[in-house]
Known about the structure:
Chain A: It comes from Mesorhizobium denitrificans. The complex is a heterodimer. By secondary structure, chain A is of the alpha+beta class.
Amino acid sequence: MTAHQPSVKATKIAGGVHTDQRHDSAHKHVTGEAIYIDDMPEPRGTLHGCLGLSTVAHGKMVKIDLAAVRTAPGVVDVLTAKDVPGVNDISPTGRHDEPVLAEGVVQFYGQPIFCVIAQTREQARRACKLAKIEYEELPFVVDIGGLDVEKDKLVTPNLTLTRGDAAEAIRKAPRRLKGQVRNGGQDHFYLEGQISMAVPGEDGDVTIYCSTQHPSEVQHMVGHALGVPSHAVTIEIRRMGGGFGGKETQGNQFAALAAIAAKKLGRAVKIRPDRDDDMTATGKRHDFLIDYEIGFDDEGNILGVEFTYGARCGFSSDLSGPVTDRALFHCDNAYFYPAVKAVSAPFYTNTVSNTAFRGFGGPQGMIGAERIIDEVAFATGKDPLEIRRKNFYGTTDRNVTPYHQTVEDNIIHRIFDELEQSADYDGRRREIRAFNNNSRFIKRGLAITPVKFGISFTATHYNQAGALVHVYTDGSVHLNHGGTEMGQGLNTKVAQVVAEEFQIDIDQVKITATTTGKVPNTSATAASSGADLNGMAAQDGARQIKARLIDFAAEKWNVEKDQVVFLPNRVRIGNQEIPFGELIKLAYFARIQLSAAGFYKTPKIHWDRAKGQGRPFYYYAYGAACAEVSVDVLTGEYMVERVDILHETGRSLNKALDLGQIEGAFIQGMGWLTTEELWWDAKGRLRTFAPSTYKIPLASDRPKIFNVTLADWSENRENTVYKSKAVGEPPFMLGMAVYHALTDAVASVADHKLHPQLDAPATPERVLMAIERLKAAR
Amino acid sequence: MAKKVPLQITLNGEERAEFVESGSTLLTALRDRFDDTSPKGGCNQGTCGACTVIIDGELRLACLTLAEMCDGASVQTTSGMAKGGVLHPLQRAFMEGFAAQCGFCTPGMIMAAKALLDRVPNPSRDEVIEALAGNICRCTGYEPIINAVLEAARANSHNAA
Lengths: 778, 161
C-alpha cells in the first residue's frame, strides 16, 4: 500500500466521510489472509484448555474426582476454583455472583467447574470427559412462567417506570383488555466462537489475545481473577468473527482461565471452546414473558397501559439489570402512552446467565408495544396500520416517554408514510384479501411495523471514548481507538473521519489492533455507539494536531490562522500550497508534537434510575419495515415473500456499510422471531446447541423480494459525528414486521376477528398451533 | 499420541506432503500442518460451512473429512485463488460488493460459490441461493453475497466472450 502517492491536485480526498469506502479488511477477508485469533502463529509450547461443565441444573458438588483427568494423555494441569489466585469472580457489574469456576455449588447445566490444560486441544477435550463428579441435586427453576416479581428471586434490583396514573386511566377507559406474550431468547452464533490466547511475559505480566467487544473489561476481570493490577494485563484484539453482544462480557471466563493457566505454567495457553460448549456455557438473548393491560377507546386510541416484563436472566446478574431496563425504555417503541406503568422482573433461573445481544432488551420491549397495538386493532376491527399511526408520538405534543424524556427528533411519520407508499401497502392489502378469499390452504399476511430506538448507553459513564492519533514524519497516520472491529466496519468509519479531518486520502490512515495499552478505560463496543463515540474521539485527536499545525504554519509563514486551510492532501498557507507530508516534516523539525490523545463524552444525557426519570438517550434512530408472508395452514410452514425497509442513519458516514448493517440486522431479527428456538428439557439442559437443532436463517430463508432503502434526507438534529446516526442495533427490530405479518396471515383463518396470540419465535409449530386454536374458536 | 500418517495432497496446485495425526480432520491438517488458515473452524460439526473446501472438484466440509482419506487428492482453498496477486473474479466481486462483514464465513462462501460456477458458469439467482444454503453468514443477511456471485459469473462470461 506504500506505492500510492497522494494527489496534491485532487478536488476531493479518497475515502472521506459520506463515501462508500469499503471495509478496511475486505481484501484480506476474500483471500483468507485476515487473521483471527485462532489463525495467529502459536508461541512455542502453547498449551490448550478445555472446560469441564456441570451436568445438573442445580446441585451441591459432594465429590469431585479428577484423578483420571489428571493422568490422561497429554494433560499438563487441571484448574479448579482453588487455582484462581485472585478473586474467583467475573461478574461484570460487581455483584460478585459469577465465579470463574464453580465452587461447592453449580447453578446451571453446563456451568464450568474445572479447566483441563493439555498439550493439544484434542487431548484436553478427551480428558474432560473422564471427570467423575457427584452431585446432591437441589430444586431448580428453568422457566419463568408463574414467577412473581414480588416473591421470587431476582438477580438484580428491578426498575419501575411511571408517568400518570395508568391504573386509573385503564379503569376509566371505555374498553380494556389484558394478555400475555412470550418471546424466546437467541444464540449469537458469531461464526468465530469464543477464543482467548494468553501469553505470559516478564514481571508476571500477561498479554491476552481475546475475541472481545470489551477489552478494558476483560483486562479488569483478568486482573481481578489473577489478583494483579490492571497494568500487568494487556488485552489485544484485531478483529472478531462476529460479536453481536455475545462478546461483551462472555469472553471474560476464557480470558481469565487462559491467563491463570499461562501464569501458573509459564507457557502460552489457548482456549477455544467447542461450538456445543460455547452454546451451552455462554449467555444468550433474554427471553421475556410480558404481561399487559390496556385501556383504549373505540377509535383505537390507547389511554393507559400497564406492563410487567419478566425476563429469564439465568443464574447471575451479568448485564441483566441494564438489559431489562432497556426493555422498559422500549415498551413504547414509537407510541405515546397518556398514562403508563412498566415494571421489570429480572428473574433468577438455573440456566446460563443471559447477556447482551444486539438491541439489548430493546427488541423485547418493543414486542410488548407492538402486541398491544395488534390487540387494540383486533378489538376495534381496524387495520393495525391505522392503530399504529394513531398512537405515534407527536412532534410538538404527545411526545413524552415513560421515562420522562421528550422526543425531540421524531421522524416516524415521514418514514412510515414514505414506506407505506413505496411498498404499496393499501394495494397489496386489497390483493391479499382477495387472494386469501380464494385460497384454501395458503394464506398471505401483511404488516408494517416501526422502530424508534434510543441511542446511548443507559449507564451514563459508559458514554465516553478515547483515541490515539499519531502523524509520522512522512505524513502517514497511525490511528487507534477504544472500539473493536467485529465486522461492522467501525475501523473504516473512524478512519474516514480522520482522513476527512486532515484532508488526506484514507490509505494514508492505518488503524491497528485495539489494545488496552494504547487507549485505556474504554467502553464496550456496544449499544450501537462505536462510531458515535470513537469517531468523535478520533476527530478530537486529529483536531488537536491540526490546531498545532495551524499555529505553526501561521507563525512560520506569518499569516493569519484562518489563512491556513487543509485541502485534499495539501495545505494552503496564505497564497501557497504545500503537500500535507511536507508540512508535517517541517513541523517535526520545528519540534511540533504530532501525536494526540482524543477524547469524547456524550453531552446532554443524564438518568436517575431511582426516580425513573431523565434523558438516558442523546437521540433516537428510526426505521420501518413492511413484510408479506405466505403460510400453509395445513402445516404451519411459511415463506417470506417480500420485505420493504426504509431506515435512517442520519447523514450516513458510509451508506454501503450502513445498508449492510440494516440488511444483516433485519435477517437476524427475523431469525429471532421465526426459526431460532432455544429449547431446554425438563432437566434444565439446553438441547438446541448447534445449527443442526438451532435454525439460523440461511440464504434460502431470505425474503424473495427484499427492497432496502436508506432515508437519505435524514440528518441527526444533535451534533454527532458529521450528523450521522448509529446503525448497529436499530434495524434488528425491523424483523418484527415478519412476525406481525405471520400474525396477520394466521388471523385470516378466523376472518381477522380473533387475535391469534402468536408467541415468538413463531416457528411453524407455533404458527400451526395458533391456526388450530383459531379454527377451534371461530 | 495418535500415530502419524503421511499425507500427500495437491494444495492449490502445489504438491505438498506432511505427517498428520491419524484420525485428524482435513481442517486440522490444513490449518495446523499445511499452514493454510483460510478454511475456518466455525462449528466443527458440518453445520456452518466456514471450513468449505473443494476436493477433486467436489465441494466438501473439511471439518467432516478425515485427512488421511484425502491422500493423493487435489484440494482447493480460498487462499489459493488469487494468481500472481490478481484476485479471482469471485474474490473481486465479494470485495467490491461489501459481501464480507466480519469475514469469517467468507472463505467458505467463496469456495461454495466457486464450486457452483465451475459447474454452472451462468447460474440463476435461485441456483446461487441453493448453492449457498449450506453456509451460514450471521452478518450480511446474504444479499450482497448472492449479488457478488452473480456479478462474478457476469464478469467471467464477459471475459470468456
